[in-house]
Write a structure and sequence with these properties.
By secondary structure, this protein is mostly helical. It has three helices and no strands. The chain has helices spanning about 1-5, 20-25, 25-40. It is globular, with a radius of gyration of 11 Å.
């Protein structure tokens, strides 16, 4: 996340911003991504 911010990163296809990720919790965000990858249920 630090590199993306440094390079003026933008939200991805899911339109989730850094602020949303930080509000919901980075660990929760990463867990959701992990589960989606394992289940091949990409949103």
């Amino acid at each position: 996340m630090r590199w993306a911010r440094k390079n003026n990163g933008a939200p991805g296809i899911d339109e989730v911003t850094f602020e949303v990720i930080e509000t919901q919790g980075v660990e929760a965000f990463l867990e959701r991504i992990r589960d989606e990858l394992i289940g091949r249920a990409f949103t």
